[in-house]
Design a protein that fits this description.
10-stranded mixed β-sheet, 10 strands, ABC-4/HrtB_transporter, transport, transmembrane helix, ABC3_permease_C
Length: 348
């Protein structure tokens, strides 16, 4: 790393500018990644936290896909479903948009209707009580023992659960009777399966569409479009970072061709020069990207109370590693094509 360290020491201003640009790019990438994860969690956390491993929907019409909002797989189908091979437990789940009156304040929520005692129902759910999400509890200052009203019926709050949002609204787990005035809603059946469960055989026998819980996220209205758009933005940012880093190192490599030629003339191998230059790029990417990532994590933590934002390894470390990898590839492309012998001839 002789040449790399020399360049870093004697061209501080130039490398500081390059590092600042890389830091800003990493800041944008990490912020967008954390926001994507936060928005995704607000859309699907109530589904991903379901204890079952499969979800059954009514068979969609031709040209349509399964949907939590349009499925009509009624609870009356439970006896037939529970008899299917590999099904260890089944529970009906009704999902409908609704409103809850909390202390005179009308709040939009997603109502999850489940039979008390079923495996999908949270602890505390009874015919006369509900369980609410932490988001609703924090926003409306509701605690266990308080009373909320759904339609004309009042229910006691029996519990508060984490990870309970659906389509960006807080979830209220309620008995099925509480959803009677909501106009129905989507009806699905959550499954627990074991050895011998065959998706195709189940679908043919029951006449339903079955998906794993993770795959069923595509059946949530806005999730696919929203997540796809934000993922595309992240990919474009990474592509821009590759172009920027590649342009930086292309110019820098052209400017130091004489140094490369001299080293080659005194016996340095091309592999050594490539490793030296790549170590320089790695230092720059790690320092600039690391600072940008730390700033983004701090801003995300501060903004977490106002906007949905997730700060963990998947939204900080992984984007940084992706940025470093893309930057190294972009830098290597130019460095590996330099011919020090030609450069020495040009210098003469």
């Amino acid at each position: 790393m002789f040449l790399a360290l020399r360049d870093l020491r004697f061209a501080k201003g130039r490398f500081a500018l390059m590092g600042a640009v890389i830091g800003l790019i990493s800041l944008l990438v990490v912020l967008l990644t954390g926001l994507t994860a936060g928005l995704s969690q607000q859309s699907v956390s109530a589904i991903t936290s379901l204890p079952g491993d499969h979800v059954a929907f009514s068979t969609p019409a031709d040209g349509e896909s399964a949907s939590y909002s349009s499925s009509r797989l009624a609870a009356s189908r439970l006896p037939a479903i529970e008899k299917q091979k590999g099904v260890t437990d089944a529970a009906a789940l009704t999902i409908a948009p609704g409103r809850v009156d909390v202390g005179g304040h009308d709040t939009a929520v997603s109502l999850f209707g489940a039979a008390p005692g079923s495996f999908v129902a949270p602890r505390g759910l009874t015919p006369s009580s509900v369980v609410i999400s932490t988001d609703l509890a924090d926003e409306q200052h509701v605690s266990v023992g308080d009373t909320v009203r759904i339609g004309r019926t009042s229910y006691a709050v029996a519990g508060v659960v984490d990870d309970a949002s659906f389509n960006h609204t807080p979830v209220v787990w309620a008995p099925p009777s509480a959803l009677a005035g909501t106009g129905g809603g989507g009806e699905v059946i959550a499954l627990r399966t074991g050895d011998g469960f065959d998706t195709r055989a189940f679908q043919q026998a029951v006449g339903a569409k079955v998906m794993t819980t993770d795959d069923s996220l595509s059946a949530i209205g806005s999730y696919t479009a929203e997540n796809g758009s934000l993922t595309l933005m992240r990919a474009l940012l990474l592509a821009v970072s590759a172009l920027v880093v590649g342009a930086f190192f292309t110019v820098w490599t052209i400017q130091r061709t004489l140094d490369l030629a001299v080293l080659k003339a005194v016996g340095a191998r091309t592999g050594y020069l490539v490793r030296d230059a790549m170590s320089q790029a790695l230092v720059l990417l790690l320092v600039g990207g690391g600072i940008g990532t730390l700033v983004a994590a701090g801003l995300g933590t501060l903004a977490g109370n106002a906007v949905p934002f997730v700060v963990d390894a998947s939204t900080t470390v992984i984007p940084l590693l992706m940025l470093v990898a893309v930057g190294m590839v972009a830098a290597l492309r130019r460095i590996s094509t330099v011919d020090p012998i030609t450069a020495l001839g040009a210098a003469r």
